[in-house]
Write a structure and sequence with these properties.
Six copies of one chain form a homohexamer. The longest helix of chain A has 21 residues. In chain A, helix 4 crosses helix 9 and helix 7 packs across helix 8. The termini of chain A are far apart. The first copy, chain A, is built from nine helices and nine strands. The model of chain A has no long low-confidence stretch (mean pLDDT 96). In chain A, strand 7, helix 8 and strand 8 form a beta-alpha-beta unit. The first copy, chain A, has two domains: 130 residues, Rossmann fold; 125 residues, Rossmann fold. Chain A is 39% helix and 13% strand. The first copy, chain A, is of the alpha/beta class and 282 residues long. Chain A has a four-stranded parallel β-sheet with strand order 2-1-3-4, sandwiched between helices. The interface between A and B is large, with 58 and 58 residues. Strand 6 of chain D pairs antiparallel with strand 9 of chain E, so a sheet runs across the interface.
Chain lengths: 282, 282, 282, 282, 282, 282
Amino acid sequence: MPKRLLLIQPYTFAPDSPLYVAPRDASREARLINFEEYGHLLADTEWDVHPGPVGPFGDSFVETRGEFATVGVLRLPMVREACASGKWDAVVLLGGGDPGFAEAREIGQRHGVPVVACAHAQMTVAAMLGNKFSVIDVSEAHNMQMYNLVVQYRFTERCASVRCIDAPLPRPSRPGACNVQAEKAVVDAGRASVLLDRAVAEAEAAIEEDGADSIILGCSAIYWMRPHLERRLHAAGWEVPVLEGYSSAIEMAKLLANLGAAASGLAFPRDDARRWRRRKVF
Amino acid sequence: MPKRLLLIQPYTFAPDSPLYVAPRDASREARLINFEEYGHLLADTEWDVHPGPVGPFGDSFVETRGEFATVGVLRLPMVREACASGKWDAVVLLGGGDPGFAEAREIGQRHGVPVVACAHAQMTVAAMLGNKFSVIDVSEAHNMQMYNLVVQYRFTERCASVRCIDAPLPRPSRPGACNVQAEKAVVDAGRASVLLDRAVAEAEAAIEEDGADSIILGCSAIYWMRPHLERRLHAAGWEVPVLEGYSSAIEMAKLLANLGAAASGLAFPRDDARRWRRRKVF
Amino acid sequence: MPKRLLLIQPYTFAPDSPLYVAPRDASREARLINFEEYGHLLADTEWDVHPGPVGPFGDSFVETRGEFATVGVLRLPMVREACASGKWDAVVLLGGGDPGFAEAREIGQRHGVPVVACAHAQMTVAAMLGNKFSVIDVSEAHNMQMYNLVVQYRFTERCASVRCIDAPLPRPSRPGACNVQAEKAVVDAGRASVLLDRAVAEAEAAIEEDGADSIILGCSAIYWMRPHLERRLHAAGWEVPVLEGYSSAIEMAKLLANLGAAASGLAFPRDDARRWRRRKVF
Amino acid sequence: MPKRLLLIQPYTFAPDSPLYVAPRDASREARLINFEEYGHLLADTEWDVHPGPVGPFGDSFVETRGEFATVGVLRLPMVREACASGKWDAVVLLGGGDPGFAEAREIGQRHGVPVVACAHAQMTVAAMLGNKFSVIDVSEAHNMQMYNLVVQYRFTERCASVRCIDAPLPRPSRPGACNVQAEKAVVDAGRASVLLDRAVAEAEAAIEEDGADSIILGCSAIYWMRPHLERRLHAAGWEVPVLEGYSSAIEMAKLLANLGAAASGLAFPRDDARRWRRRKVF
Amino acid sequence: MPKRLLLIQPYTFAPDSPLYVAPRDASREARLINFEEYGHLLADTEWDVHPGPVGPFGDSFVETRGEFATVGVLRLPMVREACASGKWDAVVLLGGGDPGFAEAREIGQRHGVPVVACAHAQMTVAAMLGNKFSVIDVSEAHNMQMYNLVVQYRFTERCASVRCIDAPLPRPSRPGACNVQAEKAVVDAGRASVLLDRAVAEAEAAIEEDGADSIILGCSAIYWMRPHLERRLHAAGWEVPVLEGYSSAIEMAKLLANLGAAASGLAFPRDDARRWRRRKVF
Amino acid sequence: MPKRLLLIQPYTFAPDSPLYVAPRDASREARLINFEEYGHLLADTEWDVHPGPVGPFGDSFVETRGEFATVGVLRLPMVREACASGKWDAVVLLGGGDPGFAEAREIGQRHGVPVVACAHAQMTVAAMLGNKFSVIDVSEAHNMQMYNLVVQYRFTERCASVRCIDAPLPRPSRPGACNVQAEKAVVDAGRASVLLDRAVAEAEAAIEEDGADSIILGCSAIYWMRPHLERRLHAAGWEVPVLEGYSSAIEMAKLLANLGAAASGLAFPRDDARRWRRRKVF
């Protein structure tokens, strides 16, 4: 029986925003970036995509700790509704930086519905493939969100580094910022991309200097780089896997739904837990 | 010159709530629990207390991951206003569980204003005093919030255990729950308290079984236990320091304000960081 | 397109052995223990089961380091043949203790074929679900094999304990040994099982004393316990996931096959690696 | 009530030594290096400075393991006397390298008097401010003393590196050695300092290569660099805190004295401990 | 060519002390405790025993941090003289708690003479034999000295626990204290010993509760227990190695002398190091 | 009484192989590479050398995970015979990469015969000498074998790096490969060696960049470099010990044989262990 997955966007720009992408009445496929990269993984599922909350920061991408926490909390009611509806076998939190993931897992646990997120899924898969992974990511602020996820998810021994390509996301205070998602079109058109070059350079530095043997991508706005980056690294002689978040998260959602495993009720206890433990250790 | 501290409550119950404590027009001292424990530490400062946001969960204490994240985000505008006002040398986030702490530090860093929180301050001070601390705390759900703070703050090697006294906080779904804060009056009146007895038992188990050599308290609703717990443990022969959150946080705020140190701008980068680092490591 | 999985047994007893189970000409389903537990996970795949090498230890189960290493090496030619054949999208190494896993992954990497194993898959999934897992396992010798896998797979911080139920596997030198796999029939018949009772007791001890929030099973001869153990623990009030190896490994194989990811070529370099790194770090 | 602090020098040169600095009958302020950096932190205290033992190494600064251990032991009687006198609320051990610190804390614990030291205080404060700190320090031998303090204080995960500026301290066998403390006058006079330039270079390397997000200074002879180094780094765009030992130690002493916390009696047990624990763990 | 070893006592009681053991003019064999345990290991060496410094604490054994540091420094001139003399191929620091070991190694490095100590040698050998060792030791204060050695020697992941048998060493303030060294005669005479029984009990607890798979002894005053403890544990079914300090240290001294390896000059740099490294990491 | 050591080769080339070195009827000394480096360490022992299994890989050196596992298993019967014979006090497994070591220790434990191996011995000795060691090694594939040994032996915190000199071992698929063992003759003849130069360069990088304070050699085919590398590094001013495997292993074998310690029976349990432990921890 096909598993039913709800993909929830981290946030949406208002329709009148210059950063607004796909109309809400576009097809579900059109509302997902880079669909060609992972669409086939959804073929054996029943799925839909939820637009997520309207971002409260105007024409700014989410990049700071405060912005991540805020949209994370705004997404929780949607997670709660999805889990309570009985309509979904798993919830996939889209976007890099995993806003609201821990809280959403707590909700999912109560309903027996696995909830997955892109950075967590990538790190988990990367840890399956080798000894250490590095994160290629966009900016100082976003890097530190990734850094803190590595600590929270207890991957500090498995993460070789977070590497920055210095491409801070567009926001009003940064008028000339490169729209890194839009750079995809440049590369698709076969043209050179300084951003992609930098990602290649940092990935090679991660391999040669930091000890990385797999590469993951931090911000969802650069997930499109996955096949290009992998091809470039392979061409340079590095047999290194490169992961992006949506495919990793979708596959992890299917795995957990198939196993019937959401999250440990001891790690995410109910407020009315039936049993309690005298002690917890690290 | 005395340092100016703003203490911000994690959240306030609505005035018509049975859990509502002190009227907002009460004196600043009356609006702080256990003032006799740490009031003298404020004597050389200029201070005020902000009521924090009205909690959005009705007659429920904050206890789950979702609840902590939510009130944490609600407190951020108050932190931002305080830091931007130029009126304060440091901000003290009251309450156990440190809701919104990382995000508030990010704000503080931008204004050069140190922001401190109770669990973080207790763990930092405990780590000064010995090798390993244990957390005595109220319930499964609250325990796991503490657990996750230990991980995030990178104290896993210094935390011997989180110990539970099984006193879940009052909420409508838990009508018979003990009001642990109210138990203070019982003890102040010289009567026996099962809760305090349990805290003593768990602290002794932490010392004898888990390797703790100092004790901190998890939920602010049991901070009043500090002197009682310390006395009982000393009477039992254990020369073990017991800390509570408000005094630790106030002193840490003064220390940081005196040193003129808020937080590292590299750990909490601005979205318009002037310099960027190619890599971050763990 | 359905993924094609080859499941390879760790070893087979000789047809004349009293421990010989299913005839080689039995259906593929009949040749797999506990098929009812995970058979549905194979429904969307094309799969077969390979009998593995005939074990060189007579009527002894594999339990010591030397025995594991020996059957591990004997299984490698089968892995090599499967990977080279182009007939399989992934190889699933059956059995607890993961004999030959690292070497088999090395082979798989050369052919772009993911190879998975039961203990590694269980630990990986358990780490997705909570903070720490414990291993319930059969005997001192088998425990230490599991212990060493935890170290090799770098899960020491995530493994709360390896717990023993003192059920050493049958071997000639141990004539009265309980056939733990056969105990399944006892439980299926609704009768009490001391072995299962011990597993429950050790799992509860793992939860209450060691800090485990999920449970995995060590030896494949007790994989049948999964649903029983989970039910018993849930009945006791513990919302704790229990995993067994075959389902975890099958799902992990599908995930990796779907993502097109075998193993990092840097972690498992070819002898004719095209590029080399000056240094590797931990 | 102001706290009473006794600051104890690590050692003093003999009056006839060319390295002898301030006469013992100079004012307490004059007997402290870099007083302008931290003097204001003492304003709300009652304090005095003890000259410490006369160093037994002639015209050599303390730099090797043996020298540190020796002056550390020589300072203990002064700590004991200060703690037993009832005249002091805290003892501040001056100097880098923290000679005798663990032993002095043991003494302080018996009298309920907190004892603090410069490296320990800097590391503790640095850990409050970010993820990782680096130590800028003078020479190979002194570096390894700092290295060993990091290990003993259990900060290995929080220390990014110890960085050397290759300025070994004056000793007879090293006639041309730069007097690094004296270099302060050069910088105060507005002239260029190669030493300071090197400290800036190593601090930038610590930030860019080692992952440091705060900087501490190792040897007290370069504590004067703090404001200069911070200014230079800020001018280069790095929002990184730089700490020196005296201010950190003074503030930590005040914090501990205010909290009434000396050290854990379990970490520093009396020889006549009233209770004992069967086991200690790490 | 036989290696030449100088064994240096940690300290000696004054001749008029009731704790004074062997006259200084006794044979070298008579001046060593438990010679029958390890004497054969010296048979292929040329050796002598140095009485060490006269302990400055009267009729007290060394047990606290301050006492250890003090006798450690007092032993350094003897180490220096021995290393400089050219007469010895290695120096063995006798006694538990390793007073002055790091400083003595620094001296030895300068002369190319390996210096070994009992706790360090035991831990090193124990780590060769299994996964984790526990320390059986005498008292709270002595335990914490051992604890700190484990941290300094970076064995925290390999040490399961320090276990206490509550036998504080004789000192004037403790008139009824058991002379644990003297208890050897009781056991040699075939009589029951409560102390030894406790050591057995704690060793079994270390095995069953803490995960120890080898046992070392902390205080040299209980080194005599080694064969008895091992025999008792083997009789109870535990195939666990038990080590004492003198034999481990003697063998480690021979190994290092044979290999011509003293200590790394980078870990213990000379004050006039010829080369320096820009950074040191952990 | 001299200890009796059996040295077992990892594998031997067939007599008709171009890589075949010493005839089996050569003297025991002639059958050992670099005998002049460590022969004196055998002088006080009774020893012999066993040729090991004939390698099943034709004219290929062992370099991949699969090759190591295979020869490791082939060597076990020889270890078993040696241990059971009662003729040997210790077994020394020759060769880098330690094939079959864990399994051989399990055998040795049953007979009370210590079994040692070259990489394990080098790492153990290196850890005695300083804080961190680096491994200088030949090729990507061999590097990762060393990497995995570091993980298995739990030396990740003590190993600064594995450094590669890019000298893959001869095999038919690599016709032009340098015979690194044969390069010894070049250096012995006083001629320049690019390989040795590279080893020096990587060792210096390990010291200056990775934090190594001692150096060990990975593949036995470069063990001959030890004195040359040490001399070159000392000449460059680095007082750094360099170790090779045979001498370290021989000395460790003598140490363990002298102490009468094989391996912990709890770490390497018999299949008929007399006692069992409920839990094992990390």
